[in-house]
Design brief:
six-stranded antiparallel beta sheet; five-stranded antiparallel beta sheet; Immunoglobulin-like
């Protein structure tokens, strides 16, 4: 083997000898990380004041996309007010609360107002109001929405205005509301380990 061939062989062996520690050193910095993330439900629906809930036979089903049903005692008074019937706890995002659909059976009603306000506030200064116009014949229509804020819990009140006078022998009315939420974007903060 000539001198150039020997130098090439030595250079090749040196290159391999240098590459092995570099490749091995590179592997030292490769690692796997495991992160456990607990999912956060953006909004949680809860029953409110127990006396009001039982007075109107309120039922709450499917808490992620809730359906609310109230049996409202209709009298010849100008309104029935259901105080703190529900609580809505907002964990993440700034969702908009609105009525997706609703139905009503019973004596004629002029309006039903859904009043939403923080548990630290009062219904006289609400975060917002959603208006429902119920009709036994044609279902009901709803208008309005309320923007909720993460970290807050809200009360939901119902103000029911009957169409007076109520005929003798009229039964209670049942209002079923499917609430909906939009714009549930947002993140929950995760503390470092």
């Amino acid at each position: 083997m000539n001198r150039v061939g020997k130098l090439a062989l030595v250079a090749g062996i040196l290159a391999i000898a240098l590459a092995v520690p570099i490749a091995t050193a590179h592997l030292i910095f490769v690692y796997e990380a495991y992160v456990t993330v607990q999912p956060v439900t953006p909004v949680v629906w809860l029953y409110g004041n127990s006396e009001e809930v039982s007075a109107v036979k309120l039922s709450l089903t499917n808490k992620t996309s809730p359906q609310i049903s109230l049996t409202i005692p209709i009298t010849n008074s100008s309104e029935t007010y259901v105080y703190q019937a529900l609580e809505v706890k907002v964990n993440a995002g700034s969702p908009y609360l609105y009525v997706g659909s609703c139905s009503y059976t019973g004596p004629a009603l002029t309006a039903v107002n859904i009043i939403v306000y923080p548990t630290t506030g009062s219904p006289s200064s609400p975060t917002g109001t959603i208006a429902i116009t119920p009709s036994s014949a044609s279902g009901c229509t709803a208008s309005g929405y309320v923007q909720l804020t993460a970290g807050n819990t809200y009360y939901v009140d119902f103000q029911v205005e009957p169409s007076l006078p109520i005929p003798y022998g009229a039964s209670s009315g049942t209002l079923t509301i499917n609430f909906a939420l939009t714009n549930q974007s947002g993140t929950a903060s995760i503390p470092p380990p």
